[in-house]
Amino acid sequence: DSSALDKIVVTAQRREESAQDVGVAISVISGETLAERGITTVNDLRNQTPSLEIEPAFGGGQPQFRLRGVGFQDYASNNSSPVGVYLGDVALPLPVQTQGQLFDIERVEVLRGPQGTLYGRNTTGGAINFIPAKPTRETSLGITASYGSFGELVAEGYASGSLSSSTRARISFATDQGGGWQHNR
User: Fold this and answer.
1) Helix (H) or strand (E) holding 129
2) Which of 172, 184, 175, 174 shows the shortest CA–CA distance to 152?
């Protein structure tokens, strides 16, 4: 049936299931959608996800997350945010660790509301899960690069495939160099 919705598989409750069967408020953004919309930093997610606020503290290098208004504005590294951020089921306790996470990912899941200890931390505001791309059976390679004004180079790439009959691996890289200069008069 062409009028049926595509099935979106998520792991919001630590198991694969349809997004329509999950009993929590969830937003899912695929890696392809992020690339199409030009979203390259975590800070840009606030424009794509309802009720997600990201305040770039210290010049954007340490974002402060709020979901449905629940968050904090304390920049000390010894405090834990009520919004959990995870990369491949591993908690990222410091906000600065979230920078550069929007390359070579399968999808981003944003869960609103209390999540209990499902992911190992009690998060009262919600959770942001970055699901990395998985290794492939067949060998695949990809690279994108651009060169801009003042020597700016932005490049991203990956290699994925089987190392043996039972082992698969994926390696990815990203770099953003040069491009900025300041002239004071």
Assistant:
1) strand 126-132
2) 175
Q: How many CA atoms lie within 13 A of 54 on its CB side?
A: 24
Tell me the per-residue pLDDT of 32-56, one tens digit each, with 9 for 90 and over: 898 888 888 888 888 888 889 988 7
**CA 147 – CA 150 distance, rounded (Å):** 9
- CB contact burial 144-161 (16+ within 10 A = b; e otherwise): eeeeeeeeeebebbbbbe
| Angstrom distance (rounded) from CA 20 to CA 110 | 14
Whole-Å CA distances, 129 to 29, 107, 156, 167: 11, 8, 21, 25
d(CA 82, CA 124): 5
State CA 139 to chain mean position distance: 24
**Can you give the pLDDT at residue 139?**
93
In angstroms, rounded to a whole number, what is the distance separating the alpha carbons of residues 100 and 108?
Answer: 13
- What pLDDT shows up at residue 141? 92
Residue 75 DSSP code: -
